[in-house]
Each structure stands twice: as C-alpha cells, then as structure tokens.
Amino acid sequence: MAFRTKNLFEKTTKLVRSYSSDKIYTHMSLTLNEQTGIATLELAKPPVNSMSFGFLSQLAAAVQQSEADKYKGLIITSRSSGVFSAGLDLKELHHPDSDRILNYLRRLQDVWFQLYDCSTPTAAVINGHSIAGGCLLALSCEYRVMVNSFKIGMNEALVGVPVSPMFIACMQSVIGQWEAEKALLVGRLFTSEEALGVGLVDEVVGGKSEGVCKAEGYLAGFREVSARARGLSKRYLRQEVVRDLVRRREEDVKKLVEIISSRGVQDSLGEHLERMKNKK
Ligand SMILES: CCCCCCCCCCCC/C=C/CC(=O)SCCNC(=O)CCNC(=O)[C@H](O)C(C)(C)COP(=O)(O)OP(=O)(O)OC[C@H]1O[C@@H](n2cnc3c(N)ncnc32)[C@H](O)[C@@H]1OP(=O)(O)O
Questions:
Q1: 1 belongs to a structural domain
Q2: Distance in Å, CA 175 to ligand 1 centroid
Q3: 216 alpha carbon – ligand 1 mean position (Å)
Q4: Could you give the residue ranges of the DSSP H alpha helices within 187-262?
Q5: Which of 24, 165, 205, 267 is most buried per CB count within 10 Å?
Q6: pLDDT tens digits for 244-258?
C-alpha cells in the first residue's frame, strides 16, 4: 500500500511537520493513503485529547488541508486506545481570562463550522470514550463507527454548564428532538451499544482497525459520485443549521462567556475537576 505520511508524530519532540505546507501539528497527525485518496486524522494529545486552543487550531488546519487538497475522504480517530476525546479542555473554562475565553469559544465555533460544512466526505472512528465536545466532533462528521464498550454523549448537565446551541443542533439533527431532549437534560452518556440503538452512531465494531475498514467502506461509496455535486448537496442539507448558528454566533458566544464566568458555573467546574483528580 502506498502511504504518504504528511505529518509524522515524532516521539522525541512530539512535533509533526507537514511536507506539503509549513503547518506543524503537535496534537494530531494527518496521513494520506495515496491509493484511495482518503486521509486519516489521528488525534494524539495525551492523555485524553482534550480540546485546548492549540488542539482546535490544528484541527481547523487539518480540515482546511483536506478541502484544499481535495481528499476523497477524511477519517477522524484517536491514537489512544481508551479515549477518542474528553471534550473541551476544562482548564480553558475554569477561571478563564476574559479575552482568552472569548477567543477560545470563537475558535471552537470556527472549527465546528469548518468541519460540519466541509465538502470532504467525513467519518469518525470512535475508538474510545467520546465526551461532550468529543461527541460534538463525532456528530459533525457524516458517519460514525464506534468500538464497543465505550461511552459517548454530552455530560454538560453533570458538569454544571449549559449545553450550547451548536451542541444541541448537532445532537438533534442526528437522533431527533425527543431523544436529544431526554439525553441532554440529564447529561446521559450512552454505551456504544445504546448509542447504536438511538442512532447516535451508525455501526458498532470490535476494534479500531475494523472501524477504519467500515469508515473506508462508507467513504468508498462516493467513488462514482461527482465530488462537486456531492459537496454542494451536503451544504444544502446542512445549511439550515449552519445559517441559524452563523446568524447568532456573536450573541451566543457573548452569552456563553457570561454564563461560564458566573460564580455558580465556576464552582461546578471546580468541583468537577476536583472529582476527576480524586477518582484515582
Ligand atoms: C454558533 C454557536 C456556538 C456557540 C459557542 C460554542 C461554545 C460552546 C461552549 C460550551 C461551553 C461548555 C461546554 C462544554 C463542553 C465540554 O466539552 S466540557 C468537557 C466535558 N468533559 C468531561 O467532563 C470529560 C471528563 N473526563 C472523563 O470523564 C475521563 O477523563 C475520561 C472518561 C475521558 C477518560 O478517563 P480516564 O482514561 O480514566 O482518564 P482520567 O484519569 O479521568 O483523566 C486523565 C487526565 O486527563 C484529565 N482530563 C480529563 N478530561 C479532561 C478535560 N475535558 N479537560 C482537561 N483535562 C481533562 C484528568 O484530569 C486527568 O488529569 P491528571 O492526570 O489527574 O492530571
């Protein structure tokens, strides 16, 4: 098989350099299979692929690259065998600097718009727990394959932060209003098998390599389809969600900063971080 590794994760320096541009990825690697034209984006920010500002910036660059280089497909998965992504970096949300949190949330919006609205066919191979922002990342792809015995969902209710409109819109569009309402209001995390039952994921498999094969199968289904027509159709199908969120993005982000900075939310976040520290 002819693989061209655009970005290699160097164990010593943890630096990854793209050979086709000057982008440097430290938290993920992007590898193109030249035979199929399908690229794999492997998230590699130990221990839990939490979404820091830097992580989001690199994710945005990788999605941009997939569009610019006209990949036939993009598979997002994790290098960790136990965690796909733990979601937003809770340290970015706890006691935030006001400018930084504003920029952080704007960056999150930008990445989401780029991924959700990108013309490249996308699939997630969820080979570990996928919590809150991690679930959003998977839901923004077109197809989801999940390895068994992990958890996926949006736990904001348990963390003590409101679920943002972007997260709600994605969940609703995949599992419908009633299932979304039942899950989001209690912060439910689904097992892989339960997620399949409500349509949150499309397939459940025994391991990562089987998951990658299934994802490649989904993406190969577009081989005979005009990429341009397909890309436009995807945009039209998703435009209602995008348009609404674009219209209110500044209003949403300002409101979220206000909510996140409030005493009650900061106390809840602090308790959540403390619980995680003490669980060992
Ligand atoms: C257009 C309109 C848009 C509007 C704007 C959009 C903006 C939206 C803003 C929304 C704001 C609020 C929304 C938040 C959504 C989120 O994503 S909040 C994050 C929620 N995530 C979690 O609660 C996950 C918590 N983590 C876990 O449950 C577990 O870590 C795990 C199941 C993922 C993995 O378990 P395990 O393998 O046992 O590892 P641990 O020992 O628990 O953790 C290892 C290590 O990682 C640290 N860590 C874990 N999660 C996070 C995280 N999310 N952020 C930062 N750090 C994390 C954990 O503390 C451990 O650290 P130490 O080793 O103890 O130092």
A1: no
A2: 23
A3: 29
A4: 192-198, 208-220, 227-247, 249-261
A5: 205
A6: 989 999 998 999 999
